[in-house]
Amino acid sequence: MKTEAAILWPDADEWSVEEVELDPPRHADEVLVRMAASGMCHSDEHCLTGDLPVARPLIGGHEGAGVIEEVGPGCTAFAPGDHVVFGFVPACGSCPSCASGHSNLCDSGARITGGLQADGTTRHHARGQDLRTMLLLGTFSRHTVVNVMSCVKIPDDIPMDKACLVGCGVTTGWGSAVYAAEVRPGDSVVVIGIGGIGAAAVQGARLAGAERIFAIDPSEFKREQAQRFGATHVAASIEEAFGLVQEVTWGRMADKIICAMGVGHGNLMPGIMALCAKLGTVVVTNIHPALESEVNISFLDLTLMEKKVVGSIFGSANIRYDIPKLLELYRNGQLDLDGMVTRTYPLADINQGYQDMRDAKNIRGVLVYD
Ligand code: CXF
Ligand code: ZN
What we know:
Blueprint: E1 2-8, E2 16-22, E3 30-39, H1 42-49, E4 58-59, E5 63-71, E6 83-86, H2 96-99, E7 124-126, E8 129-133, E9 143-147, E10 151-153, H3 160-163, H4 169-180, E11 188-192, H5 196-207, E12 212-216, H6 220-229, E13 233-235, H7 238-248, E14 254-259, H8 269-274, E15 276-284, H9 299-305, E16 308-311, H10 319-331, E17 341-345, H11 350-358, E18 364-368
Parallel strand pairs: 4-8, 11-12, 11-14, 12-13, 14-15, 15-16, 17-18
Antiparallel strand pairs: 1-2, 1-4, 2-7, 3-5, 3-9, 3-18, 5-6, 6-10, 7-8
The structure holds cyclohexylformamide and zinc ion.
Cyclohexylformamide binds near residues 52, 88, 135 and 287.
C-alpha cells in the first residue's frame, strides 16, 4: 500500500515528508497500524543532529498511538480495531531482563537503533530504497508495520493525541521519579529540563509525595508550566538553583535529582552533584552525546557523602504494566496529559514542530493524523 511518512535521508538536516510504499505484515508477530498521533520527542531530533547514531534512511518517530488495521498471518496477539500505544523498547517477555521484571532492558532492545524488523528486513520503501524505522516503530508515518513486542493495547476511550505520550516521554519522566529516583514522601526533588520528560518527572515526584520540587529550565514559559505540573520552586539555571535549594532545604540539598535536559554534558556534572544531598540520587535519564567520554564527577564526594548516580532507560518502567496504569491515572485526573500537549501539527508541518521545540515553545508538540 501507499502511505506518507517523514524520512531522514543520509546527509539531510530536516525531515522529508513524502510518499512511501509499505508492505503488509509478513509474520505472525507483525501488525499494520494506522497511526492516530505521534509525539515529537527530542530523541528523533538527536538522530538529526547525530547525538544518537542511527542508520539512515530512517522514518522517524517512536512516541505513537494508533489502531491496528491488519495482523500478520497467524497472529493472535492483536486484532484489527485494537487501539495500541507503542513502547520504544520492545518487551519479549521471556529474556532474563523481562523475566526478572526489567523489560525496559529487554534483550531485543539491542536492535532498536538498527531500525530493522526482527527478520532483518524492512517493510517501508521510498525512492527505490529500504527505510529503517526509528526504534523499530516509525511513528512519523500514517501507517507502519511493527512487532507485537512493541505494542500495548489501551482502552478505546482514551484520546490518542494524549495516549501517545505514554509511549516515551511521560513514562520515562514519571518512572525516573517513581522508580529510578524512588522519590518518597517528604523528599526534596530537582528536575533539570522541563520538556516532555521533565514535566512528567515533576508530576511523578508530586504523585510520589515530594515536599519540594525544584524545576530548572532557562525558558520562562517552561518554568511557568512546571509550576502547573507541581513544581514548588523554579530556577533558570543549575547555578541559580544552588542558592535556592541551599536556602530552602537548610543546606541539606536535594534528595533526588532527575536530569531531563535535551542533551546532557559531562561538564555540567559538578554543578549537578553540588545540588545533591548526602545519600542522594542523581538519575541520568536524558541522553549524552554518543562520543562523550569524560564526565567530571568527584568520586571522593561520592564515597564520603554516599551519593548515587544511576542511569535509567524508559524510566525503568514496564510497558505492559505502566502504560495502562498511567492512562488510568490520566482518566482519574491524577496525571495531566492534556496540559503536556502544547501544540498539535499535521505531518506536513513536522519541521515547524521541531523548530518550535528548539525555540522552547512546547512542552510537547504532537503530530495528529487525519
Ligand atoms: C531514547 C533513549 C536513548 C535511545 C533511544 C531512545 N529514549 C527516548 O526518547
Ligand atoms: Zn522519546
